[in-house]
From TrEMBL:
Signal peptide per UniProt: none
Keywords from the UniProt entry: Membrane, Transmembrane, Transmembrane helix
This protein's name: DUF192 domain-containing protein
Organism: Candidatus Ryanbacteria bacterium RIFCSPHIGHO2_01_FULL_45_22
Transmembrane segments: 6-27
Length: 156
């Protein structure tokens, strides 16, 4: 292989790598939820497709900036331990139901207004007790699916 051919192949490889990096950054910026793993959970008789927030960064970002969730879609926040938790509506553009879960059972449900519904005031909601999971879904989903305190929750 000549030196000229080696330079051309090297340039093609570098351009390809840069292209992949730029494309990956673009996808993460325009659709940050595309990097989340998805699973199905069963909550009582209802099935829910959830995005898994199992890292500090994913739990911190949550559904901030999301403008729409499909009907039976939500986010499952998985914590490394069972502790009291607080969720807020910072940059939350849609109203949500929060489902507080401890050891596979619902221990409480809260309604979280969007940031615009709260007049751009950040609202913080504490869990009713220590939890290891929290699920965020569209407002009204809990009532429509009959989820209540004591409902069993598990990953399918």
């Amino acid at each position: 292989m000549t030196f000229h051919m080696f330079k051309i192949i090297s340039i093609i490889i570098i351009v390809g790598v840069v292209g992949v990096v730029v494309f990956t950054m673009y996808v993460r910026e325009t659709d940050p939820l595309s990097t989340y793993e998805t699973k199905t959970i069963q909550m009582g008789n209802a099935n829910l497709e959830v995005l898994i927030a199992d890292s500090e960064e994913k739990r911190t970002n949550g559904l901030m900036g999301v403008t729409k969730l499909s009907t039976d879609t939500g986010m499952l926040f998985i914590f490394p331990d069972s502790s009291p938790r607080t969720f807020w509506n910072k940059n939350t553009l849609i109203p949500l139901d929060l489902i507080w879960i401890s050891s596979g059972r619902v221990i409480g449900v809260s309604s979280l207004s969007s940031i615009t519904q709260s007049g751009n005031h950040i609202i913080s909601l504490p869990s009713p007790d220590a939890v290891d999971w929290v699920v965020e879904v569209n407002a009204g989903w809990v009532r429509a699916r009959g989820v209540e305190i004591g409902t069993e929750v598990h990953i399918k």
